[in-house]
Amino acid sequence: MQELFKDLIKNEVKPFLTGHGYSKKNLYFHKADGTLLYTFHFQKSHGNTWDHVMFYINCNIHSIESIRLSRLPRTAIH
Protein backbone atom coordinates (compact mmCIF):
# COMPACT_ATOMS: atom_id res chain seq x y z
CA MET A 1 0.00 0.00 0.00
CA GLN A 2 2.85 2.40 0.73
CA GLU A 3 4.07 1.82 -2.81
CA LEU A 4 0.58 2.55 -4.14
CA PHE A 5 0.63 5.91 -2.34
CA LYS A 6 4.02 6.78 -3.86
CA ASP A 7 2.77 5.77 -7.31
CA LEU A 8 -0.36 7.90 -6.88
CA ILE A 9 1.72 10.98 -6.09
CA LYS A 10 4.29 10.30 -8.82
CA ASN A 11 1.98 9.25 -11.66
CA GLU A 12 -1.26 11.14 -10.99
CA VAL A 13 -0.88 14.07 -8.59
CA LYS A 14 2.52 15.40 -9.67
CA PRO A 15 1.78 15.52 -13.44
CA PHE A 16 -1.58 17.17 -12.79
CA LEU A 17 -0.35 19.86 -10.39
CA THR A 18 2.93 20.61 -12.19
CA GLY A 19 0.86 20.94 -15.36
CA HIS A 20 -0.99 23.75 -13.57
CA GLY A 21 2.20 25.57 -12.56
CA TYR A 22 2.90 24.02 -9.15
CA SER A 23 6.39 23.10 -7.96
CA LYS A 24 6.99 20.00 -5.84
CA LYS A 25 9.17 19.56 -2.75
CA ASN A 26 8.69 16.28 -0.87
CA LEU A 27 4.90 15.97 -0.48
CA TYR A 28 4.30 19.74 -0.86
CA PHE A 29 3.13 21.41 -4.06
CA HIS A 30 3.18 25.20 -4.19
CA LYS A 31 2.54 28.02 -6.64
CA ALA A 32 2.86 31.79 -6.23
CA ASP A 33 0.39 33.79 -8.27
CA GLY A 34 0.64 37.54 -7.85
CA THR A 35 0.18 38.26 -4.16
CA LEU A 36 -1.06 34.78 -3.19
CA LEU A 37 0.70 31.49 -2.45
CA TYR A 38 -1.27 28.28 -3.06
CA THR A 39 -0.14 25.07 -1.34
CA PHE A 40 -1.24 21.44 -1.35
CA HIS A 41 0.36 19.12 1.21
CA PHE A 42 -0.23 15.37 1.09
CA GLN A 43 0.17 14.23 4.67
CA LYS A 44 0.27 10.54 5.58
CA SER A 45 -1.70 9.47 8.62
CA HIS A 46 0.21 8.15 11.64
CA GLY A 47 -2.04 5.06 11.80
CA ASN A 48 -0.83 3.53 8.54
CA THR A 49 0.27 -0.09 8.24
CA TRP A 50 1.87 -2.05 5.41
CA ASP A 51 -1.57 -2.94 4.02
CA HIS A 52 -3.56 0.20 4.89
CA VAL A 53 -2.68 3.80 3.95
CA MET A 54 -4.64 6.89 4.86
CA PHE A 55 -3.65 10.47 4.09
CA TYR A 56 -4.87 14.03 4.34
CA ILE A 57 -4.74 16.73 1.71
CA ASN A 58 -4.06 20.10 3.32
CA CYS A 59 -4.96 23.04 1.08
CA ASN A 60 -3.74 26.54 1.90
CA ILE A 61 -3.96 29.98 0.36
CA HIS A 62 -1.65 32.58 1.91
CA SER A 63 -1.08 36.23 1.20
CA ILE A 64 2.60 36.68 0.36
CA GLU A 65 2.48 39.94 2.35
CA SER A 66 1.21 38.11 5.47
CA ILE A 67 4.04 35.57 5.15
CA ARG A 68 6.56 38.42 4.94
CA LEU A 69 5.05 40.13 7.98
CA SER A 70 4.97 36.92 10.02
CA ARG A 71 8.75 36.61 9.64
CA LEU A 72 9.40 40.08 11.09
CA PRO A 73 9.93 40.58 14.81
CA ARG A 74 6.66 41.56 16.48
CA THR A 75 7.99 45.00 17.42
CA ALA A 76 8.67 45.78 13.74
CA ILE A 77 5.02 45.20 12.81
CA HIS A 78 3.45 47.67 15.26
What fraction strand? 25-35%
Number of DSSP helices? 3
| Estimated structural class | alpha+beta
Shape: flat
The count of DSSP E runs of length 2 or more, i.e. the number of strands, is 4
Sheet with most strands: 4 strands, antiparallel
**N-to-C series of helices and strands:** HEEEEHH
User: Averaging pLDDT over every residue, what do you get?
Assistant: 88
Distance between the termini: 50 Å
Round the Cα radius of gyration to an integer and report it.
16 Å
What low-confidence regions span 5 or more consecutive residues with pLDDT below 50?
none
> What oligomeric assembly is this protein in?
single chain
- Please bin the fraction of helical residues: 25-40%
Going across the major beta sheet, what is the strand order? 1-2-3-4
What are its keywords?
78 residues; alpha+beta; 3 helices; 4 strands; 35% strand; flat
Textual characterization of the structure:
The structure is a single chain. By secondary structure, the protein is α+β, with helices and mostly antiparallel strands. Helix content is 37%, strand content 35%. The model has no long low-confidence stretch (mean pLDDT 88).
